[in-house]
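Bit of a strange request maybe. I'm writing a small parser for structure token strings and I need a real example to test against, not something I typed by hand. Could someone generate the tokens for this chain?
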Amino acid sequence: MTYPYPYEIVTGAAALKRLHELRASKEGIPIILGGKEKFERVQECYSFIDSTPEELVAKAATLDPMAWLKEREEEDSEYFKIKESDWPEETFPNDALSAHLDIRSREPLDEVYITILPASDTWKAACYLKIGGWNSMPNAHEHSALWRYWEERYGAKVACIADDVIEFTVEHPPQTRAEAMELARQQYIYCADIVHQGVESVEALAAIILKAPVWYFWWD
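Reply from user aminoacidic:
Good idea to test on real output. This should exercise your parser:
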């Protein structure tokens, strides 16, 4: 299936600058899709969903994201049971996007794909790309419903959708530990892998997102 949206190929070193330029133009929604392999995976996932982007956006608009999080938690309450932990002594807030980098070397990729989606709001990007619905990753309309809430509350705008990795830039991140814990609980239920296979506790996740300008999600 032919990819339905325009895209550019730039070097990894130029990707963030180009993303900023495209955002400033306000002509559609630019999203970094990662390297060629990640781009091909996004194409593949798009072809699996029969619903149109417009149908998915309409479905997202009627979904209460807080009710969805509660239902998701209750479906497997043991898995999502939150064990209390101490606030970490050392914290490493997310401060930079990474989808344009090689996952091992952390060096910029030779090629990075940036798509421009014909949408007016960044939260709709999941629906236009039809991402999700595999393993524990939410469905496209579920992503978008939660992203809409996060954009309204925190100024969070999706910047990268690279197959199993999603990243946001955040204009108004939580400023207190209590606010960060509230958000971390939401993010944990949305993407438990970032705790179970990553930072190991919700408190550690809260420390990472406290005052942080970037959010990172990854599904195994």
